[in-house]
Amino acid sequence: MPHPDLHKIATGPVLRAAINLGNGALVQQTDGVLDGVSPRLAQRLADVLGLPLEPVIYNGARKVFEDSGRDIWDVAFLAIDPTRAQSITFTRPYVLIEGTYAVRADSPLTEVAQADHPDHKILVARGSAYDLYLKEALKHATILRADSPSASVEMFYDSEATLVAGIRQSLEAGFADDDRMRILPGRFKSIEQAMALPQAHAPHHAALDQFVTEAIAEGFVREALDASGRANLSVPPQ
Description:
Blueprint: E1 15-20, E2 28-30, E3 33-35, H1 37-49, E4 53-58, H2 61-66, E5 75-79, E6 88-104, E7 121-125, H3 129-137, E8 142-146, H4 149-156, E9 163-167, H5 168-174, E10 181-183, E11 189-198, H6 205-217, H7 220-227
Parallel strand pairs: 1-4, 1-5, 7-8, 7-9
Antiparallel strand pairs: 2-3, 5-11, 6-9, 6-10, 6-11
């Protein structure tokens, strides 16, 4: 049974869900049609609320976060991060994804642990979860920033960067069938993806958290990942 506060999440006649196209693990778009676990969860929530779904489209997580206090979206899908948690409220994670690196084919690097070196420059998407993590975790390498995940992939070809960081699925999509690039095995971080509310709606956190819990327990999240070709992603145990 839905939490009694769930209907308070939407502040108008539609459910405004922030959808980040920069995260290829969670969102895919073909001919303008959205798919993936995030759009499917958004539609499930809209159906429970009995409201039309209005996707609010973004190309990266940074802008989603920046808009959290501007009454532009009601609910979002973001990676859990302590800095972001000062302005938004997260549910429990519904999926785990890998942050890793891509390098040029002739790079001598063979594993993630080799990235943090004074001679290395790492290209990231500004304000992404892995940007927030790497700026604290890296002690020697230099970070370069692009405006979005797709921009970081495009810039890497002609940039001075040694590596480009990203979500594994996004890097795989960005460098698909390009033998000039390769993606390193392993990960520098397991990134917890959750649903989120603006801080002003924090009192409704329990309602949204229950919604996520039920979506996981009923197998909806697993089915959504499998149906969108993301069977390799993990759903956290409850």
